[in-house]
Design goal:
The chain is an alpha/beta fold and about 325 residues long. The protein has 6 helices and 19 strands. Helices cover about 20% and strands about 25% of the residues. The strands form 5 sheets. Strands 1, 2, 5, 6, 7, 8 and 19 form a 7-stranded mixed sheet that branches. It has a 5-stranded parallel sheet with strand order 10-17-11-12-13. A 3-stranded antiparallel sheet has the order 14-15-16, with no helix packed on it. It is elongated and about 65 Å long.
Length: about 325
């Protein structure tokens, strides 16, 4: 694969509310950002969300995919170049910075990282074997296939209760399995779940094994208090225990905390490498909301714009980066 020779002002790695907001602000600053959205799921985790009720400006809620589509179109309107490709390697210490995808090599003066996070797995026997055969990590993707099933949702946060409530549209029953005797979810989500007659709770319990050979037949549940075990007869399992930051691509180049979240010079989005900025769920382990992700995307674009101005090395407006296909 030959090397690109022209240089973009800024490349944004990732999409979702973080990447699209960064793209919008960078585009309006006439930086002509190039955005690698992902070939698998442009738009990030909100593409798998139903009603978004807490994003400002939508009093009657909005569907996650609709919100992402609107953000995407807004960024495009101002000149962002959006590419459904996956970044496979980077050299952030190079000058200019090198970003490689499946299709080509790109160069940029500044890079904004908005890679978000991925679903955590339980890591128990049977989980991977039965993935797609009764085990899922996305209720909005797969809930339809569980009509009339007895379903278990694993977790105790907002995501778990949102999934449980959504799944009552399809399932005969939904059992929330949680390690503790209190939930971490917001009060409004708890109130909805407790009021739903289809939802029950298995407290102080963890999953020891997903049972079944070709499809899920149940869960082996272990008490977190006394270690006793029993079988929960379900045919659907939805895992909602949180997320891991998508920071693997930057290993050895950018510092992370012990859980893999990228470190930035808060309250800015600057990383330890000049011209590299990080925002959204790959950084944020505390708030993890669409609106905060969008806010940090805005901050990253402003930080990048100011850094580029300080370098007095802006590519002329309208300049395009070349890429070489294999």
């Amino acid at each position: 694969m030959a090397e690109a020779t022209e240089v973009r002002n800024v490349i944004i790695i990732g999409s979702g509310p973080t990447g699209y907001t960064a793209a919008l602000y960078a585009a309006r600053a006439e930086l002509k950002p190039l955005v690698f959205e992902s070939s698998v799921m442009a738009g990030g985790a909100l593409m798998q969300t139903t009603d978004v009720e807490n994003f400002p400006g939508f009093p009657d809620s909005i569907m996650g995919p609709e919100l992402m589509d609107s953000m995407r179109k807004q960024a495009e309107r101002f000149g962002a170049e959006l590419v459904p490709d996956d970044v496979v390697a980077v050299d952030l210490t190079a000058d200019p910075k090198v970003v490689k995808t499946e299709s080509g090599t790109y160069l940029a003066k500044a890079v904004i990282i908005a890679t978000g996070s991925r679903y955590k797995e339980l890591g128990v026997p049977g989980e991977k074997l039965l993935g797609g055969h009764g085990v899922s990590w996305c209720a909005t993707c797969d809930g339809f296939f569980f009509r009339g099933h007895d379903i278990a949702v694993i977790g105790g946060g907002d995501s778990a209760l949102e999934e449980a409530t959504f799944l009552t549209r399809f399932g005969k029953s939904v059992t929330v399995v949680h390690r503790r005797d209190t939930l971490r979810a917001s009060k409004i989500m708890q109130d909805r779940a407790f009021a739903n007659p289809k939802i029950t709770f298995r407290w102080d319990s963890e999953v020891a094994e997903v049972l079944g050979s070709e499809k899920v037949t149940g869960l082996r549940i272990r008490s977190t208090k006394d270690g006793t075990e029993q079988v929960l007869p379900v045919t659907g399992v939805f895992v909602a225990i949180g997320h891991d930051p998508r920071s693997d691509l930057f290993a050895g180049q950018l510092a992370t905390d012990p859980d893999g979240y990228l470190l930035v010079d808060e309250p800015s989005t600057r990383t330890a490498i000049e011209g590299v900025f990080a925002a959204g769920d790959v950084v944020d382990r505390t708030y993890r909301q669409a609106v905060t992700a969008a806010g940090t995307g805005c901050a990253a674009a402003l930080d990048a714009e100011r850094w580029l101005a300080s370098q007095e090395a802006l590519t002329p407006a309208g300049g395009k980066n070349s890429f070489i296909t294999s």
